[in-house]
Amino acid sequence: MTDMVLGGSEWFQGRFGTVAGEVAEALVRAGRNAHETAADSKAASKLRTDEPYGATFWQILALSTVEELSGTQGVQTTKPKGSRFELPVVNGTILYAAKCASQSGPQADRLMIRWSNFRERLFDNVERADAMHLPLPEWEPEASRIETPSSAANAVILVAYVASDRGGLERIYIGDGYLDAEGHVHWVYYEELPVGPAEMGTGMMSTEQAGRFDEAPMPDLDMGLYVDDDAAEGGR
User: Fold this and answer.
1) 171, 98 in Cβ contact below 8 A?
2) Nearest residue to 172 via CA among 180, 181, 162
3) Of 17, 69, 158, 181, which sees the most CB atoms within 10 A?
4) What is the pLDDT of residues 112-149, one digit of tens each?
5) 204 vs 218: CA distance, rounded Å
6) Most confident of 4-8, 33-37, 107-111, 224-228
7) What residue spans of the chain are helical by DSSP H?
8) Helix/strand/coil percentages in the chain, nearest 5
9) At what angle do helices 51-69 and 20-45 cross, to 10 degrees?
10) What SS3 state is found at 218?
11) How far apart are CA 21 and CA 18, in angstroms?
C-alpha cells in the first residue's frame, strides 16, 4: 500500500502553513459526511430522481466544512454578501466548497458548477488565464514559485466535489479556480485529494482509492453453445 502526506505539497503549505494536513483531512471528512447524509435523504425520499441527493449534499457540505475545520488552529468564519452559509477562513484564505453539476465528468477540466452572481463576486480576484498569451517558454510561470495571498480579499480557494448517489464520493479537487458565465470551472492551479481509506489524524492517506462496482474484474465463464440433452440423445 502506498501512502501520501495529505497537504504536503508546496501549494498546500503555501496556502495553509502548518495546518495544511488538517485542512486536507477536514475537507475529505466533510465530503464523506455530505455524501452519506445525501444518500440517506435520497433513500428516504423513495424518489427515482437525484434531486433529494443533490439538494442535501450541497447544504450539508457547506455546514460540515465549517464544522470539520472548527478545531483547526486559527480558523475563522466569514459570511460574504449573498452567501447562505458561513465560509471558513484559514491563514487568510477563504475556502469555498461546492458540489459539481451532475453532468460533470471525472476530469478536472470538465467540471461544471452552477453560476451565480455571488460566485462571480467571490472569485472576482482569482487570477484569470489570458487566452491572448502564446505558450512560449519565456512566458510560462516558474513551477516552483507559489505566492502566498496576503489577505482574504485576494485569496479564495475552490474545493470542487464530484459525487453522486450511485457513484459515491468520486473526486475532490482543490485549487485556484473560477467559473465562466456557463458554469465551467477554469483552474489556474489544482490538486486532487484522495477519497480512499484513510488513517485520519495521522496525516497519511492511502493512494489506493476505493473502487467502483463496475471496476471489478469479470469472472471467467465457461461459455459455449447450448445443447438440449434430450435432442442430443434422439429425443428419448
Assistant:
1) no
2) 162
3) 158
4) 999 999 999 999 888 886 653 444 444 444 433 334 44
5) 32
6) 33-37
7) 10-16, 20-45, 51-69, 117-122, 229-232
8) 35, 25, 45
9) 150
10) coil
11) 8
Nearest to 156 by CA among 192, 119, 131: 119
Number of Cβ atoms within 10 Å of the Cβ of 80: 14
Decide if pLDDT at 176 tops 90. Answer: yes
Under DSSP, the state recorded for 187 is: E
Burial class (CB in 10 A: 0-12, 13-18, 19+), 70: exposed
Q: Regarding predicted confidence, which is higher, 207 or 70? A: 70
Ramachandran category for residue 60: left, alpha or beta (phi over 0 → left; psi -120 to 50 → alpha): alpha
Structure pTM?
0.74
Amino acid at 103: Q
Q: Is 234 left (phi over 0), alpha (psi -120 to 50) or beta?
A: left
Residue 216 has pLDDT above 80, yes or no: no
What residues does 171 pair with on adjacent strands? 162
Q: In which residue are the cell numbers 448517489 written?
A: 165
Are 102 and 50 in contact by the 8 Å Cβ rule? The answer is: yes
